[in-house]
Amino acid sequence: MDFVTSFLSDYVGVYHYLVMAGCVMGAFYLHDVFNSSSRDKNDSQKFISYGYDAHNGPSVWKNVFQEAKGQRQSPINLITAFSVMRPFERNPLRFSNEFHQFPCEMMVHNNGVNAVLYAKWKSPAQPNITGGPLEDGVYNFLNVRFRWGPIDNEGSEHMVDSQQFSVEMQMAFAKDSDSSNSRDLLDIARAKDLLMLSYFFMVTPTDNPYLEPLIQALKVLKYPMSCANVCPFPLKLLAPAFLKNYFFYEGSLTFPPCTEGVKWIVQPEPLLISSRQVSQFRKLKALNCVPVISNLRPVQMLNGREVLYYG
What is Dmax (Cα atoms) for the chain? Predict the structure, then answer.
């Protein structure tokens, strides 16, 4: 967190953000997208060009990022009838006790394309997930990203039985034998074995009170590269634990470089959000100071992959 907050302020002008953008995006590029050991020196410029407009959006990513051409890309349309059923009782999914504990610090960051939530706990242990399709692996929490669209019923990247939802929340976890190492990980770039845990939100007339600390923080993230503290709350309020009735498949990151080998657990039962709360995400601005109206990648071909349903 100190890395981010030492360079960013909540209350600086547009000109200052634009001046800082090149340097800061280069740093976040290392943490947020690429493993620097496998990329050439021009990759930071490629990352800066990635966005969701016609000239730098998902339709042209394959021309810039080699891994976006892969056969195991995300997101996908999850079809219940075509999924392979697996009994959850043999090895239920387990959420650690840290999901119930208050972090000592929470922060949300506008990185120019998304709102990313970070948290720190006093204990060396991070919230983690085990069991289910993860076998004997322990996956430690890294951060949370949100996906939204131009209208309230078109915001999720994944679809369930061809249905799209208002917002998709994607929580990143990394497999690490030493959980203390993951405490200082700002992002997913250092993760060798990544898990994405996905929740959907659907619009209702009533605000979701558990989202409100985050929604209030978004109000001061109008310009890119800004940060805001969030009143800490347990992750269980944002991401309720579950044992069964979820999808699992292997895919990729849904944003450049679209690295494959990512495990996805998708909870199809939607949580609630109001139209007012969704609208706060659309007020975040990109590097060109234009609001990020949409930041989702369209569904990709399944290409013969097996989708499991634990029920």
Answer: 57
pLDDT recorded at residue 190: 57
pLDDT digits (tens, 9 = 90+) for 253-281: 999 999 999 999 999 999 999 999 999 99
Enter the tokens of residue 226: 């800004």
Question: So what's the pLDDT on residue 166?
Answer: 98
* Residue linked to tokens 């100071």: 289
Question: How far apart, in whole angstroms, are the C-alpha atoms of residue 215 and residue 213?
Answer: 6
Give the pLDDT confidence score for residue 14 in this predicted structure: 38
The SS3 of residue 243 is: coil
The whole-angstrom separation of Cα 148 and Cα 247 is 21
Residue with tokens 């997913």: 188
Alpha carbons 211 and 52: distance in angstroms, whole number: 25
Three-state DSSP at 307 gives: coil
Q: Which one-letter amino acid corresponds to residue 7?
A: F
Q: Token pair for residue 181?
A: 């190492």
pLDDT for 124 equals 82
pTM: 0.83
Contact between 224 and 287 under an 8 Å Cβ cutoff? The reply is: yes
* Contact in structure between 166 and 203 (CB atoms under 8 Å): yes
215 CB-near residues (< 8 Å, 6+ apart): 277, 280
pLDDT at 90: 86
Cβ–Cβ < 8 Å for 103, 123: no
Give the burial string for 147-169 (b: 16+ CB within 10 Å, else e). bbbeebeebbbbbbeeebbbbbb
The list of the chain residues with pLDDT below 70 reads 1-49, 177-191
Collapsing DSSP states into helix, strand and coil, what is residue 173? strand
The H-or-E segment that residue 236 falls in is: helix 235-238
